Structure formats: structure tokens, C-alpha cells
Amino acid sequence: MNTDFATRPSVMDRIGTALAAIRDWLDERGKGAWIVAMILAFVAAWPVGLAILGYMIWSKRMFSCRHRHDRRSRHSSQFQSSGNTVFDAYREETLKRLEDEHNEFLDFLQKLREAKDKSEFDQFMQSRKEPRELQS
Fold it and tell me: InterPro entries annotated for this entry (predicted)?
């Protein structure tokens, strides 16, 4: 019995690997490369171009090609130690402080919006009362 056949990847595996390599190659070159690939695919065979466009929108590559790399670097900085405990503590403290400041700023913006809404509502209610007072 031939065991080579059992260990060889299937056609679908090879296609998946090739598509992943193409995707990674296009990601390295940026959004422009994705757009050029989509246009060329539309010219060659419109269903393929449509499939690429759908993939770009679904995977959010249409809006930013760096989302995969940014997410990977953000997660790696949260979980990996630099090897310097003092720096790691400083980094954690700074990130915590920045997060707290961000939350305080968002709370401030919310209160500001609420105050603006309240003043607009009070002004509206006052304008509704004025015509009634004039009619009396």
C-alpha cells in the first residue's frame, strides 16, 4: 500500500495555502495592492473580482490593511514581558493611567452632551411657554 498518497495534502489544502500566501503578500503591500488585484480580477473574470471585493469588505481590508498586524502587536505587548520588571511595572502603570484618563474624558464628554441637551430642552420648553403667555 502506498503511504505517499495518505500524507500528501489534498487539492483544497493546497488551494487554501496558496490563497493564504497571496493574502499575506497583498497585506504586506497595503490597500493599493488589494485594489489593483480586485480591478485586475474584474477585468479577467468579473465573478472573481466580485469575490475579492466581497472578501475585502467582509474582512475590513477595504478600510484598513493593517488591522491584522495592529491587533497582533497590541496583544503581544499586553502579554509579553520585556524582561525588565521595572519597565514592565512602569508600562502597566502608564497604560492604566492613560486608560483612566480616557474614561474620565469620556465621562466628561457625556456630561457635556447631557448639559447641552438639557439646555436645548429647557430653551425649547421656554419657547413653548412664551406663545401661550402672549395669548393670555
Answer: DUF2852
